[in-house]
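During the no-cost extension, the postdoctoral fellow (Dr. R.K.) reprocessed legacy sequence entries with the updated structure-token encoder. One reprocessed record is reproduced below for audit purposes.
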Amino acid sequence: MFNSKNEKMTAEEIHNSSNTIAKGTIVEGNIETFGNIRIEGRVKGNLKSKAKVVLGKSSDLEGNLLAQNAEIAGEVKGTLEVSEVLILKPTSVINGDILTNKLIVESGATFNGNCKMGVSIKEIRIGENGQAKEKPNRPTQSTEGIKPTT
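Re-encoded structure tokens follow.
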């Protein structure tokens, strides 16, 4: 996968990077990152991370979230898809559906929507038009060369 030590270090640095959107900042558009991201401001668009997303008390997300792990203390209007653990803090307000493997809801959290747990893990792809693709559980069969019966 990596041709040299430098490429491996670069991949590790990217995954361990941290991004912050400060309180009072407004971002309109989709955000994609390989590393962790903390949001205290407002985002109007979809948010995708291959690592952890933290939405602080003052955060406001109008869009969908797709991440490996997430901790929410602010407000979200959209679908949350978290492949591992989603934590809803007491100040969180969620208006939308949740799909996650594990869910921790602290006393005081507000959630209005549907919830599916133990869902199949999705591979988070960065830079591919925001599309998440499920990892196949078994090899897919090709229908090439098969003639329909009449």
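The radius of gyration is 18 Å. Confidence is low (pLDDT under 50) at residues 130-148. The remaining legacy entries will be reprocessed before the final report is submitted.
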